Structure to design on (331 residues):
């Protein structure tokens, strides 16, 4: 009998490692409590699909992820992906910023080996906890050859999602992760059922490589709303950000009073990227605002928090708006 694939589980915290006072606590609990060894020992079924080893990279709630955490994690994933004795990698993660980390890894880790990021909506101590099955699914996807070359994946609620497309879309149900383009497939009882594949550049086909990235530039987000003022835009401009994501209303529209402030920060060298605060759809170039004339970039279908990740990565190589826009179309 052939040896089972070796899957390394990199644990970073979140609810999947959370613990509550009683089984009735599905929402009131502490995240990032249970160490990876205990998580894996509590799930002996993993041995049916892979030879699993665990590493505790961090033990935090994911809203506290920083760029340093992203860099440290991606470097470890990259190093493991180059090891001949590693077939797949799973990252356990809090769900709040899981989509940002998954997209970051998708952009900068040059491998075709499966990388799966996974979390849970309920702690393991709760009734109907979802973490055990999500983790089992993650390990089984990471152990499968048919998951190779599909970019970084997310397994939640029996679905296999693209790390690029997926977002946490509700904060209370176990079916929390959605993509407007739909999941890539489903995983049921350790078997993958695929229905589509990503078309955007990722992992092996990326021009970015974590092994060449020393640091990430400051990129922040301003939110659009009625009666919006320009205080935030001006403050970020003064703070020296390299790019500012505008989470605009509707089609990425910008309030009349905010346009001069954004043009002023652009004139001072800050890249301006028009995204939208609506969850779905995509922002069209030169619709709503004359992006060519203002030398602005549009985020395509990326939500503001994902546009921030891509902008940081893109700015490690490209400095002009035209190159940034090309990257936003391609990734
Ligand atoms: N469901 C969760 O994982 C949320 C817990 C916590 N806020 C985190 O993102 O780590």
């Amino acid at each position: 009998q052939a040896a089972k694939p070796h899957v390394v589980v990199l644990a970073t915290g979140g609810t999947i490692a959370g613990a509550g006072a009683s089984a009735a606590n599905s929402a009131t609990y502490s995240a990032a409590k249970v160490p990876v060894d205990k998580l894996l020992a509590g799930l002996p079924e993993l041995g049916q699909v892979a030879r699993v080893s665990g590493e505790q990279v961090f033990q935090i709630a994911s809203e506290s992820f920083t760029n340093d955490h992203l860099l440290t994690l991606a470097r470890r994933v990259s190093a493991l992906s180059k090891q001949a004795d590693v077939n797949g990698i799973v990252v356990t993660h809090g769900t709040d910023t899981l989509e940002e980390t998954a997209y970051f890894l998708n952009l900068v880790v040059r491998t075709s080996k499966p990388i799966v990021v996974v979390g849970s909506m309920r702690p393991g101590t709760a009734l109907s906890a979802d973490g055990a099955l999500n983790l089992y699914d993650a390990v089984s996807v990471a152990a499968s050859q048919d998951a190779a070359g599909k970019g970084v994946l997310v397994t939640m609620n029996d679905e296999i999602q693209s790390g690029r497309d997926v977002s946490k879309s509700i904060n209370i149900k176990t079916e929390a992760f959605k993509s407007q383009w739909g999941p890539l497939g489903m995983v049921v009882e350790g078997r993958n059922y695929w229905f589509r594949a990503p078309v955007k550049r990722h992992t092996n086909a990326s021009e970015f490589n974590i092994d060449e990235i020393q640091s990430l530039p400051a990129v922040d987000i301003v939110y659009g709303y009625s009666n919006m003022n320009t205080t935030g835009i001006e403050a970020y401009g003064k703070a020296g950000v390299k790019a500012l994501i505008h989470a605009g209303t509707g089609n990425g529209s910008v309030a009349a009073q905010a346009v001069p402030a954004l043009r002023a920060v652009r004139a001072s060298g800050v890249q301006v990227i028009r995204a939208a605060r609506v969850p779905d759809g995509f922002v069209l170039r030169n619709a709503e605002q004359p992006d060519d004339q203002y030398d602005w970039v549009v985020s395509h279908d990326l939500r503001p928090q994902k546009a921030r990740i891509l902008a940081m990565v893109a700015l490690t190589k490209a400095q002009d708006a035209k190159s940034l826009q090309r990257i936003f179309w391609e990734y």
